[in-house]
Design brief:
By secondary structure, the protein is α/β, with parallel strands linked by helices. The chain has one domain: Rossmann fold. It has eight helices and five strands; from the N terminus they run βαβααβαααβαβα. A five-stranded parallel sheet has the order 2-3-1-4-5, sandwiched between helices. The chain is globular. Pfam families: AAA_28.
């Protein structure tokens, strides 16, 4: 990929304020919206089962393909989640991680610094694309942290504070 710019990642379990933060950052940097949510919405709209709680294998394949396409956007600086999140979801579900994820060049694609939104009961809410119970989110959070550390990423934990303060921490870290 010519002139490929590594992307920063904001990750964490569902309902931790990542999308709110991404939307705030869009006035400063081009950001990539969460692909998982787009896939879930499309699957629900078309009465298909490619969701993490229904058919995680189909979900993983769909998110992988769409994310790879979106990563080619050379303007994007920050991503709402990364492909490594799929490995965490599969781990929590005791599923085999496909070779295409194991072999993905994470550190060539993403900056080594990852911003992690911790599970936060006070802001968590379910919606049509976020059906997971809060306890599941705690398990996923643990798996996410393990996956990112295992792959050699440096994790910066975002504070449980306002989106504006979180945005400023990110800007102070990458500018």
């Amino acid at each position: 990929m010519v002139n490929f710019q590594k992307k920063y990642i904001i990750t964490g379990a569902p309902g931790t304020g990542k999308t709110t933060l991404i939307n705030l950052l869009k006035d400063t940097f081009p950001c990539m919206d969460e692909v998982s949510r787009k896939v879930i919405i499309d699957e629900q709209k078309n009465n298909r089962d490619g969701m993490p709680w229904s058919n995680i294998k189909r979900f993983t394949n769909l998110v992988f393909k769409k994310t790879k396409q979106e990563l080619l956007n050379t303007d994007t600086r920050i991503c709402d989640r990364s492909l490594l999140d799929l490995e965490a979801y599969l781990t929590v579900e005791n599923k085999i991680v496909p070779k295409y994820l194991h072999n993905f060049p994470y550190l060539k694609t993403y900056h080594k610094t990852v911003f992690f939104a911790p599970t936060w009961f006070d802001i968590y809410c379910q919606d049509a694309q976020r059906l997971q119970e809060f306890d599941y989110c705690l398990k996923l959070e643990k798996a996410l942290l393990e996956q990112y550390k295992k792959k050699g990423f440096k994790i910066i934990m975002l504070p449980k504070s306002s989106p504006i303060k979180r945005k400023q921490l990110i800007l102070d870290s990458i500018l």
